[in-house]
Amino acid sequence: MAWRSRLTKKAEKQAAKLPKTIRELLFQLLREVELSGPVRGNWPNYSKLGEGRHHCHLKKGRPTYVAVWVEREDEIRLVEVIYAGTHENAPY
After folding, report:
1. d(CA 12, CA 29)
2. In the structure, how many helices (H) and strands (E) does the chain have?
3. Rounded to two decimals, what is the model's pTM?
4. Alpha-carbon gap, residue 68 to 46, rounded angstroms
5. Which of 24, 54, 60, 73 is most buried, judging by how many CB atoms fall within 10 Å of its CB?
6. Alpha-carbon distances, residue 32 vs 4, 27, 56, 61, 89 (angstroms)
7. Dihedrals φ, ψ of 41, to 5°?
């Protein structure tokens, strides 16, 4: 069964404010999650934050951009991005 991904309303607003290149990386990450699942060890600074929560860096340096997502496996496999923005405000 394939994974589905979506952005929360808050993450949609955050993504809209990201620079174009970072936004493209975010959507590339989502495509990879849909194909291969939420564990993305091939992305920079990927780590599992707890039960079903993950994060990785979209861009290192200053500012550092990160994405935080949650996996849900109720009836369908869903990954929900809950944050996309700078490292300083990330909800770890």
Report:
1. 15
2. 2, 5
3. 0.81
4. 10
5. 54
6. 11, 9, 13, 23, 24
7. -65, -10
Instruction: Kindly state the tokens that stand for 19.
Output: 């620079």
| CATH number, domain with residue 43 | 3.30.2310.20
How many Cα atoms are found within 13 Å in the side-chain-facing hemisphere of 92? 16
| CA separation, residue 13 to residues 10, 17, 31, 81, 82 (Å) | 5, 7, 19, 12, 11
Measure Cα distances from 51 to 20, 22, 81 in Å: 31, 26, 15
Number of residues in the chain: 92
Residue 52 token pair: 């079903």
> Tell me, what's the pLDDT at 1?
61
Cα end-to-end span (Å), the chain: 29
Full residue range of the structural domain in which residue 59 is found: 4-89
To which residue do tokens 């291969």 refer? 36
The pLDDT, as a whole number, for residue 55 is 86
Mean pLDDT of the chain: 82
